[in-house]
Write a structure and sequence with these properties.
Blueprint: E1 2-3, E2 8-10, E3 13-22, E4 25-34, E5 41-45, H1 55-66, E6 70-74, H2 91-100, H3 103-122, E7 127-131, H4 134-145, E8 149-155, H5 164-170, E9 178-183, H6 191-200, E10 206-211, H7 220-234
Parallel strand pairs: 5-6, 5-7, 7-8, 8-9, 9-10
Antiparallel strand pairs: 1-3, 2-3, 3-4, 4-6
Helix pairs in contact: 3-4, 4-5
């Protein structure tokens, strides 16, 4: 477990990549921190068929760093630097890759190892989660099973999908505040499925944010609002 590339700095944000050996497989990750340092941390889960440094996730990391919050991300099973080929836009390949990559148990172990590594390097800090779609497939199990996660932004995922049964089983164990996003005209994850998962969340502090549009049409004001939400609960 080590930093795998020299740190780079851009507009006050320092980026470092790392690589972990978890149960015999490699987990590549990236860590962003404000140049002035950070006393809070948010884990970022990427969407299906993308990777840890997909453009919108880097944008969220930059927003967090502008608030003095560090961020980190890893490639999910079969994604990014863990992929054997391109998954771009291929939902069937994505579902197959998720299952063959070990599914929910592997994701929980990978993220726990990544958070352990960053805490060993930077110290333990109040920690949150931000992740939509596959970011919720990863993030809800992590949030439910790791008490270090104090607040979560979830959404664009429901009771179906590759690990829908796991999500519904673990949702009642989520006890931290949750902001949950739904796209009302989602062509990939049915609205009713999303509402079913939101209803199953065990926390009393949960808010549902629905907007018109398809799966990838999340308004920018919702992204900015989600950063406000995490900032509030991590203070």
């Amino acid at each position: 477990m080590t930093w795998s590339a020299p740190a780079t700095e851009s507009e006050g944000t320092i980026e470092r990549e790392f690589s972990l050996d978890v149960d015999g497989h490699r987990v590549p990750g990236v860590y962003w921190t404000p140049a002035a340092g950070a006393d809070r941390l948010v884990m970022l889960g990427h969407g299906g068929t993308t990777h840890k440094k997909v453009e919108y996730l880097v944008g969220v990391a930059q927003l967090l760093c502008s608030r003095g919050i560090a961020a980190m991300a890893i490639d999910g099973p079969g994604h990014g630097d863990r992929a054997e080929g391109s998954l771009a836009g291929d939902l069937n390949a994505f579902q197959r890759t998720w299952t063959e990559g070990g599914g929910t148990p592997t994701v929980i172990a990978d993220w726990r190892a990544a958070l352990d590594f960053v805490e060993a390097q930077e110290g333990a800090r109040p920690t949150g989660w931000w992740g939509l779609s596959m970011g919720t497939m990863m993030g809800l199990p992590v949030t439910a099973s790791d008490e270090r996660v104090r607040v979560a932004l979830l959404g664009l995922m429901g009771s179906g999908g590759p690990n829908g049964e796991d999500l519904m089983r673990l949702a009642p164990e989520v006890s931290c505040p949750v902001r949950f996003l739904v796209q009302w005209d989602d062509e990939i994850v049915p609205r009713d499925s999303c509402l079913e998962l939101f209803s199953a969340l065990g926390t009393a502090k949960k808010t549902l944010h629905g907007n018109p549009g398809k799966h990838q049409d999340v308004p920018q004001f919702e992204v900015a609002g989600s950063v406000d939400y995490l900032d509030h609960y991590l203070k």
